Amino acid sequence: MVTASSAPKFHIFFKCEAHQAPMPFATRVNDRAGEMVQIAERIDPMRHTRIPISALLSLAALLLSGFSAAITRSPDEHPARVAVSIENYAFEPDPISIVAGTTVVWTNHDEVAHSVVSNDKLFSSPELEVNRSFEFTFKRAGTFSYFCSIHPEMKGKVIVK
Predict the structure, then answer these.
(1) Are residues 44 and 93 in the same domain?
(2) Beta carbons within 10 angstroms of residue 156's beta carbon
(3) So what's the pLDDT on residue 54?
(4) Which among 57, 87, 90, 91 is least buried, having the fewest CB atoms inside 10 angstroms?
(5) 126: domain range?
C-alpha cells in the first residue's frame, strides 16, 4: 500500500499558449480509505514569485541595519554588564569606559564592608558586606566619579560614551 508520506511526488509541465512557457502543475497523493488519488492543480508562477517592492526594501533595510551593527560592534566592545571588584581598599579596574545602557556591577571581595556612592548622588549603595554586590545602569553619557562612603580615600570613575 502506498501512503501519502511515502508516495513519490512530482511536477508535470505543459506548454501554455498564452505565456509561451512551460506552466507547472503539481500532483499530490491522498491516501483515504486505502485508495490512491492524484490531484493536479495549476501553479501560477507569477503569483508565487511576485513580492511587493516595499517588502523587499523593508527586508533589505532590516538586513543592512543588522549587518551594519554586527560590523561596527564586536561583543567585547559593548558588553551589557561590566564588573568592578572592590578589594585591597580599591576599585578595580579604575577608571572604566562604557557605552550608555551598560550596567556596572561592583562586588566587595574585601574582608570589611564598603559602599559605592557617586559624587553627584546619582547612585548610592547600601553597605556591602563580603561578597555582596551593587549594580547601576548608566543611561546617559558623561563622566561619573564615585567613592566609598566608609573609606572616602577609595575613589573610582566611570566614563560613559
Answers:
(1) no
(2) 22
(3) 66
(4) 57
(5) 81-160
How far CA 137 is from CA of 64, 84, 140, in Å, comes to 29, 13, 9
Predicted TM-score (pTM) of this structure: 0.52
Reported as a single tens digit per residue, the pLDDT across 65-81 is: 554 333 344 445 555 89
> Do the Cβ atoms of 27 and 10 come closer than 8 Å?
yes
Q: What's the rounded Cα separation, in Å, for the pair 86 and 116?
A: 10
Give per-residue burial for 107-146: e unless 16+ CB within 10 Å, then b: bbebeebbbbbbeeeebebeebeeeeebbbebeeeeebeb
Residue 102 lies in a domain: yes
What confidence score (pLDDT) does residue 57 get? 67
The mean pLDDT of the chain is 74
pLDDT less than 70: residues of the chain:
1-79
Grid coordinates of 19? 505565456
Nearest to 161 by CA among 134, 142, 139, 136: 142
At position 42, the amino acid (one-letter code) is R
Q: Are residues 25 and 89 in the same domain?
A: no
